[in-house]
Amino acid sequence: MRAALAALSTIRTLTDLEVFLDERGGVYSPEMDYGQATPPVGAFAQLKRLQIDGRTTSVAAVISVIVAPKLEAVELACGDWHWDPETRDTVLVEDALTVIFNHLRRRTGTTLRKFHLSLREYSGELFPKGTAPGTRFPISAGPLLGLCRLEDVMIHQYRLSGDREYLCINVPALVAAWPTLRFLTLPGLAVNMESLQVISRTCTRLERLTAKCLSWSWFDVPGAMEGRSFRLDTAASDTIASALRELRFEEPLKAILPDTASNVARLLDSLFPQLIPERCSVVAIWTSRRQPEVRETYDVMDIVARLQRARRDASMTADRMLDGPSRP
Model confidence over 222-240: pLDDT tens digits? Predict the structure, then answer.
């Protein structure tokens, strides 16, 4: 492997490098290269994008020898889909991840704009939970705080500990850690309405958020428990300056009542007034409890689009009234 990387580093015009570590014949270890007459791995002077796919320890070994002063995008897929001895050794995997994160911090802290991380065989918790923006990162992921110019982040964890079905990651904490963040993708994350309200207030630069699903509870609907109609706190909504334009959920929302979709749409429109409906994906499915075969599918963003049009029409009418009657 080291010989191959050494050869590739001599290609001065190389800007894109993909490394797929097929280790069915054995796990790669840097010790295999010791004692061999291999040339040194030079700097990848023009490399802009790096993608590595393999077992976590092997990914760490490869990334530790790559020096790329202009690197802007890193995409890592760590873990093996097949049986992997690393699966049961959490400490081994965490140590390898720390090595990876430390190398990225030291060598790409001021250049990296895109960081995508897929973890296939790690079920621990790398990132903070909850909704408080000031929540600290766990020690193992701490070095990632040094990636100060990130704009595009994806974190996908396939295996979760215990009986967890969804990923628990504190979105406001991630955005606070990376203030230049514009695009955030969390394929395993379940987001509730409380989290969205915090995101709208604290993640004002975030332009695109992708998650697994949106969860809905009566407790998330202002006034619902008292039997009142939907209403967002105007004092809170007046302070919102969210730049979010794209909101996507991979799974449909399980609606409690037929009007759940319209309530969700009103809240989304209030929290994120700059949403572009045609770029979003928010679907609700209502199933009758008495007649399970009766189902209705609602495109929440269609309702948001209607709310936006109504708001624009009302604004235009108000402007005409302020201008007064037209003169002959």
Answer: 554 444 444 454 434 445 5
How many Cβ atoms sit within 10 Å of the Cβ of residue 121? Answer: 23
Query: Cβ distance 28 to 52 under 8 Å?
Result: no
The pTM score is: 0.86
* Domain locations along the chain: 2-181
Within 8 A by CB and 6+ apart from 268, the residues are 196, 247, 275, 282, 300, 304
Residue 35 Rama label (left phi>0; alpha psi -120 to 50; beta): left
Residue 279's contacts (CB-CB under 8 Å, 6 or more residues apart) are 245, 246
Name the nearest CA neighbour of 67 among 111, 23, 115. 111
H-assigned helices in 65-161: 90-108
**What is the biggest distance separating any 2 CA atoms in the chain, rounded to whole angstroms?**
94
Encode pLDDT of 262-291 as tens digits: 989 998 999 999 999 999 999 999 888 787
Q: Angle at the Cα of 247 (from 123 to 187), degrees rounded to 5?
A: 15
